[in-house]
From TrEMBL:
Classification via Gene3D superfamilies: NAD(P)-binding Rossmann-like Domain
Family under the similarity heading: Belongs to the saccharopine dehydrogenase family.
Gene Ontology biological process: glycolipid biosynthetic process
Species for this entry: Coemansia aciculifera
Protein's UniProt name: Saccharopine dehydrogenase NADP binding domain-containing protein
Pfam family, one: Sacchrp_dh_NADP
Amino acid sequence: MSDSRKYDILVWGATSFTGTRLVEYLALNSPLGTRVALGGRNKSKLEGVKQNLAAKHADVAIDIGTMDIVVGDSADLVRLREIVAQTKVVASTVGPYTVYGSELVRACVAEGADYCDITGEFPWVKQMHRELNDEAVRNNVHIASMCGFDCIPADLGCFMLAQYARDELNQPLQHVKGSIVGVRGGVSGGTLTTMVNQISVEKKLLWRKLKSMLRPSSAARGSTSRGANVSGKNFQRGVIHYDETLQRWQTFWIMSMVNSQTAGWAGRILNYGPGFSYAESMSARNLIHAIGIAVGLLYGLILMMFGLTRNILYALKIVPRPGEGPSEEFTRRGFFSLHLEAFTASGVVYGKVSGTSDPGYGETITYMGESALCLAFDRDETFKPGVYPPSVTMGAALLRRLRNKGCQFDLGRAPIPAVGVASEQGSKKKQ
């Protein structure tokens, strides 16, 4: 892509809770001379973001002050094309993307601007792929969706395991099981709004998951023993099941729906192995805790589905409204750890992806910021044009960037202990 464009990165939705933090991340972590612009509908609010960040970070106040502001509306394709024609990369934080994202992606594909976002709206991403992938390939445009906690850990985790299995065992992957063994994080009002919108789209898939809670499979009591010959039937686990490797009960994890679809899609494109699949769950203390998590999650989702109950939750401040989110202190105290167990025809390899801040608003900002920087400065012949998950678009280049920023993507021939989460939090409190 030509460097003649005015901006390297345009943050679209810079006044949103996540957008403001992304601007802050880029101001503090971009290479010297990176040209960043703030985009959105309200000029005065965009100016306010610049002023607040400049006051907060005096050491980069001059850099923040030089960031331009561009104003437009997500529904105005003509204006959007004028805007994105000025930038190499658009980093969008404006959701729900099903409602506000389509015209922006169309504009990027038409004008030759690369793009990344943090959506977890898998059906929308596949819709954009069906509609725009051929044109994006012709225009050599890279559209990388799902560059946040949805779905970087699962997506890049399976990517690194597929490479590792071929290098260590000279075998393709059959299946990867992911287990969230520790997590602490908040949620923003914007994320909740997107989640409610997404549930209405994927209600059939959610219903199948809920029914399977009542009908665990015969394989629910454990996973394949290490090194044994494995087959597809070994991967059919109930939503609530016992994991022999972790020796813990597993329960439904809300992000498993989008993560399993995304990692499976990437695996087919990148040829991880014939019939490759990914499944994800969350560890619980015991069976009662596992059932309680699943029931509580279901109850909360039902309350958020209806306007009356949702407004009551807003009024009682049980959940945040759009534009609200966790504090910086809460974000710093967050963490997550994802255990990965990858099966080949005759062996098992292991991985762990972990983070030391709020997964949705600490790690996600790092993932998104580095994705935008990767598209802006690292593009080479290994990048795949089209509308794809981040592992397909950027692969090894993005994985290398994230590791260099301290994000943990570990590999081994034996299970990797989920150690350090508690100690990491303790050390943070002392700082």
